[in-house]
Amino acid sequence: MATAEVVVANGSGGADTKTAFKEIYSKLKEEMLEDPAFEFTDESLQWIDRMVDYNVLGGKCNRGLSVIDSYKILKGVDALSKEETFLACTLGWCIEWLQAYFLVLDDIMDNSQTRRGQPCWFRVPQVGLIAVNDGIILRNHISRILQRHFKGKPYYVDLIDLFNEVEFKTASGQLLDLITTHEGEKDLTKYNLTVHRRIVQYKTAYYSFYLPVACALLLAGENLDNFGDVKNILVEMGTYFQVQDDYLDCFGDPEFIGKIGTDIEDYKCSWLVVQALERADENQKSILSENYGKSDPACVAKVKDLYKELKLEEIFHEYERESYNKLIADIEAQPNKAVQTVLKSFLHKIYKRDK
To answer: Is the whole-model pTM more than 0.85?
Structure first.
């Protein structure tokens, strides 16, 4: 399960917000290139400049923009002050830097070819495994940015703790994914709903869904210890999002979603294969074992036919409906109306999405 590239912003991020966001990226990058902690050579400066642009830019920036959107809702305003905008955008970029760090290393581990429509960074000529160190540099940039712009804030230590904890959860989820789906003999008996859920929850949900809202809560002066239920709801939403992703990988229209799904060929611990294993008889399990994880189109077709035979499309739609109803009930139980609005706007962006 490669790190999901599609993710939700909880608002569309107006044109003004996106413009401000872009401008602040340039400032933050400039600061990294002028960091007095290291004596850069011209060559190393050029390398960092190109590497950061190549890996931090190019995505939809939904995680980063949703910090700003969430902060506005929490404050109950349509527009933030210049200082508030800068701080919210800066935290948004810290999440985008974190995403870049994960993706650079994830692509090496998965031996991927392309990312965001261009060659993976480690496949760029002259880069190769220097990309490992580049990933480490990207992660260190986050600490430098936080220190430079938030050190005097009362929530500075909470921010550091938040990024450290989310990084640990994500890396641990990645480990579970790698040892379950990549190492050793192909063994479908390792795959079940509990394993799938744990991988998704730790590898994707915390940094994609919880982290942007947690950043906005800290900016708004809140104590994250008071928002345990909000964390649980966002992690649940992230899990639901990845299940949708697994479903669309198989049943989505490649023309519409912009990519051709390869979970079957790649032997991924997908929600669909886990559901199939729960429902299959011995004969159907042997069809799965013989055909899952093979790039031969005939094998892929047999797996998809089996999914249809087991009515997995109907099971997914039932899961989607139940998840939505439970999430809405949990959100409406939140005492803080602004928090309810943030959570609902996240949910309505992803409910019944088709790409």
So the answer is: yes
